[in-house]
Amino acid sequence: MQRFRTGVPSVLLALGVKLRQDFTPAVKLAYKQALLRMAPGATIIPVAIDSEDLAQTVHTVALFPESVAGGVAAAQQLAVKLRAGGLNAYFDQRKFGRVHPEVVAEPYLADSTGDTVPSLPGSHPAGMITVAWYDYRPDQVTPQRRSAYVAAIEKFLPGAVVTYKMHVDDGDWTGAGGNAALEKVSMDTVISNASPAALAKALNTIRTRPASVWPVAQFGQMAVEEGYAVRWVPDSSFVSPCDVRTTLKLTGILALTPTCNRQTTAAYLATLKASLPGDAVTTVVSATRVSSGCQIVTSTSYPNSRHASVLALAGRLVKTPYPLSGTSFGATSRFPAFLIAGEVVTGKQRNVVTSKFVLLISASAIGQTSGKGAAFPVPGDSFVKYKFKLQPAQCQAGKSCAPLTFTSDTATPSFPGLTPSTTYVFTLRKVGCPACKPLTFKSNNATATFPGLEPGSTYNVTVEGVSKTGERIRSDNWLPLVMPPGLLLTKAVATGYTTGTATARTLPAKTFIKYNVTVSGVDKAGSITKGSNMLHFVTPSLPALRLTKVRATSPNKGLGVAEPGTLGIFQKYNVTVSGVDKASSITKGSNMLQFRTPAAQEIELAPPAPPPLVPIIGSTEPVNSTSAIVRIIAPSSLQCSSFKIRLCPINPAGPTCTVQACPTTLCQVSGLFPGTTYSVTVICLTGNGNELANTITGGTVTTLPELAVESADATGPYTGTGTADPTPNSWPFTKYTFTLKEASCASCPLLTFTSNSPMVAFTGLKSDTTYTVTVVGADSAGTTTEGSNMKQFKTPAAPPPPPPSDPSIDPGSATATSAFLDINPGTNLQCVSYRVKLCPVKPPSTTCIFAACTSTSCRVTGLSPGTVYSVTVVCLDANGNVIPPESSPVLLTTAPGFNLTSASATSPFRGTASAVAIPADVFVVVLYTLRDVSCPSCPPLTFNGTTLLGTFAGLTPATTYNVTAVGVDAAGTATPSSNWLPFTTPAASPPPSPRPPSPSPPRPAPSPVNPAAITSSTASSPTSGVVQLTAPVGITCTSYIVELCPVPPPGGACVNTSCPTISCAVTGLTAGTSYKVSAVCVDSSNTQVPASNTGTLTTPPSLSIASAGATSSVAGTATASPSSSNPFVSYNFTVVDKSCGSCPALVFTSSSPTVPLTGLTRNTTYNVTVVGIDGSGAVTPGTVWKTFTTDPLVINLVSAVATSLDSGNASAAIPAGGTFTNDAAAADNV
């Protein structure tokens, strides 16, 4: 592709080159070198040589090969130097004599030969021609005549837009020193807003017949110089196809990554580069911890334009799950990488590709009929709903299983209503009763409830599992189940208005020797009042059974008599008989008979009370998590043979009630849900099972919650994690206490871990050890619930110690004179301090620098700018002795150096400053900032240039300025601001006395009556200006009306202003707009007399800071607000520490109005201002400041635990935006 350049045509006359043959190759080379001193880096092409004024004129084009915007700025600087005169300082007068410009044209688009490049998008044709006033001295070319000059061209070519710049031909052609009387003003004119053909025709007419455009009677003789042409000029929006490069910005997220440090970022960058073309340059823009992991933004620059292929690559990477290969960030990694956005920019072409992903990170059962899952969105806020699909893995033979779908607003739902995989059959055998029939209970859960057992009895329990396919697995052990003794109130009746009696029955009988009695009263409204005390009584103990009398009743019968009252202890008696003969020999009976005593009388506490009229609930209480006891007081007026109990869940509400028949007034209900409140209803049943009307009363009971260890796993040799599963999940446990016991060490101390949530981390464990985990939950009232199960896990063996490693060093970041180094001391080294050696790689400096560092993060100063150093490090012990070996060398390059060497005023309104750069040719743009010392709140003045010599215009006389500068290299990287130097402009001198007019050619006599004239039109701000008039001769004006109309038409509404004097202030203009100015004189009779000429006024564009704010503790962003015309191609933002007037300013350059601010200091207030640079290189300062403060950075150590006898782990909480060069944790040796 042809490389576009920016050209500046000029015609220079060299008096010392008399003949064409005098322009020898040696003279031609010296000519080009002289211009190169004025425009370093340009290509000078002398395209033609002609004879003029007894000497030779050289037609020259200076080409600037950098970007078009930069070339235009450099070309305009050269044009300014050519028009300013003083060329003899650059040219060797022994070869060239005195030199002056004949023609200086405007920058245009050129090829490598200097020819214009036509018809490119974003460019327009312009006719360039230089016309000299031959009949008027420079002081006679007044603003009125110049306005008439422009108006004549606009009349000749309607619709054209005409601009010009002037230079003075100093009359050198008359000999050394020239002749002031023959000086002439040359108008370097640009005509636009017409077709190329129309412009070419107009230039030909102007060249051959100038009087047809500028009548001699009005303008005198107008001479057209050589070097005219129609050339194509870039607009402010022009982008050269050769300057366009494709940029790819990728946003990646390392899912589930707990840290976002430099090591992680470097590893990700290396992996990403493997998926990108080798000729692209990729850097990290930012790395931020977000909810879904570590978000890393990278920027990849390509050396040319390849938008389509890069967009296809971005689409493939962003849309593909697990786009990066390898074990670090691929599909099999613990922290896989996903690319969620790709932005491809080529010039003004921009495309964005986005994507989002969701991972299923866990799925587990939490019971026989329920489960739970966990999804992980990338990015974290991608989804508002999640749909989980469960497909049964096994089905019964010959049947298909339909999938189950669950939709949830969260990423961690539960799955109720699942089919259990196993049915459990529990078998209970009563101990001591071989004839008793075994009891069986079926359950879908591995935990079952056994209702209807006999209090005080012992049962042996075993279990059998039955799978869905019919396979049976029988337990190989039995466990004993000992039921507690039972106590049941069988009767409670009133014996009077204030007395009653109650009867209790114990199972087994005579279990209790003392009874506690409490009472509660129920009023007519149903309110219950508990008694304020408790009484107890003790049943009398009975003596042991003994025989009191034995006698014979016949030869073959006898009688034994026991002590009265003693038989009540026993329910059954065995009786045998023996015979004694006269010789006292005893003969035992051959058999045994048995009899039973009548049932014992029940204990009565008081005379019985009359029963109630309807059944009521005496009391309710939970037995455990799935059963409860309801005590019923039977009615007196109804014949209730039995009762029916109905329990309906009310908190949480449920659709199914539990109904159970109760043969007695003491009813135990099973099959309830844990932690659930039920309403209780009692129904009286007749002997045939019919419900009696009006016998329903109510009450409530709440079952106890359940708690189980859901999971327990090792996370490392010395750490683990546990999770509890409360049922219901809403039960208000406020504390969970996990207890760990070594499975193989009964005497080892227990480890206890407490958490406010069901999840807890275990630390300080032993490696290669099996632990048994149990849990206890407690609510806010301190009521505890023990877990119903235990879990085991085993920690892995500790990894072997790492092999010895040598010390190494990371060069980190470097400024021009300092660097931050991160030191890795290696292993098995007892390092107390470190010695760093930095040696320049190549001359001119050969002296090594040594630095002592007391920690692994070290700052080294005293370096040379723009220098490559070889850096090594060695460890030092406590005595300062070197511990070999020395690390392998790494390279460190310091930033280029930049410093101001002088600053001075050259006039009351101008100044200059010189800078020195190391290396000398590294910077392509230099930005100078001037501050008025006496006005700290005034916006600074900003100037830019392409050399190390800066010039400043528009200064205020008698004012002291501080000046600093910033260098910008070809990549757009800016240095920190340089040192500050002051200078003071002198006071302005009074205007000189007018000199006597020099002889001049005759000119037409003035008219006896002259109308008013516009002498100047000047913008004073982006929205205002001043029009200066000359009062008419022969007319008395009472006022003036000035009209400003935007050009080219239609450019908006005109602005009219009435002024009483010849100095007219105009407001209400539009920033960045050109206006045609006309005026009329209004006399006392209200007659309007137009001014004799028109003028032009161009308001500067406006620019201000729209916003500035911190995005973290070390970064921020700023946005400029340009006027609607927005001619700016570049913005320079200056950021200054508000509390430190002498601190270096930070300068950020951007092609868009928004720029990220980096490298800031935490908790610091900054002032931000902006200047805009348009396509011509003109600089517009912003009108306001913005102030913002960076966030304070707080880092908290959140944990520190030992992992072995000589090591430990620590973790810190780093806020978003925190950036650290080294994460460190320190542990005391114990």
TrEMBL record:
In terms of PROSITE patterns, this protein maps to: FN3 (PS50853)
- Claim: Kinase is one of the keywords in the record: no
What's the protein name? Fibronectin type-III domain-containing protein
Q: Which Gene3D superfamilies match?
A: Immunoglobulins
Whether Transcription counts among this entry's keywords is: no
Alphabetically list the UniProt keywords.
Repeat
Q: Which organism is it from?
A: Chlorella vulgaris (Green alga)
| Sequence segments annotated as region (Disordered) | 780-817, 977-1025
- Give the compositionally biased regions (Polar residues): 781-792
Biased region (Low complexity) positions are: 1010-1024
Highest taxon of source: Eukaryota
Q: Where is the composition biased (Pro residues)?
A: 797-806, 988-1009
Q: Where is the Fibronectin type-III domain?
A: 611-706, 803-897, 1007-1102
